[in-house]
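Q: Sugar O-acyltransferase (Sialic acid O-acetyltransferase NeuD family), please. Structure only.
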Amino acid sequence: MAGKRIILIGGGGHCKSVIDIIEAGGVYEVAGILDVPENKGKTLLGYPVTGTDEDIESLAAAGHTFIITLGQIRSSVLRTKIYERLKACGATLATLAAPTAYVSKHATVGAGTVIMHHATVNAGAVIGLNNIINTGANIEHDAHTGSHCHIATHAVLNGDCHLGEGVFIGSNSVLAQGVHVPDQVVVGAGAVVYKNIQEQGTYAGNPAKKIA
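A: Structure for Sugar O-acyltransferase (Sialic acid O-acetyltransferase NeuD family):
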């Protein structure tokens, strides 16, 4: 049986990963992909690029469901702009979780978020709007993420961690119990954050230190 039809926004590598989750889940059927004009008419994993961002409003008016499949490396600006545009026109955003992910029934996950294969979201965790919880990431009990965050592959947010808006946590990085991170911070791959981060910037190393 065909699932609900969904429009994907962004046709790069992250889109491929989301398509895999959609196919594995069986809840949605990809109705089309919106991407840059030069890719219109092409296909991605067998699904057509049917239009561009300029089609968002008309597709929303027609009742389509959306998910943002534009990736987020460091900056959340583009994903945030698309999210705000979708909300401004009353669009419905899906929330997706891979069948191999574990999401506690006692966790809260915001609209537009995608939880990738083998990720864990434990009891009491609160995931904001339009997040990417990437492959193998571990969001422990009572951790909170703001909206438009990307928790990259195999990163660990231990219990009671709190992230602000638009935070990027790099692959294999670890945030110790109860660490707080403000808006728009970038934590580089493999970093270990033992203490609260006090100001915006890019942090790397073990222990993590501000590098930019």
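A: Brief note, in case it's useful. The helical segments are 13-25, 56-61, 77-88.
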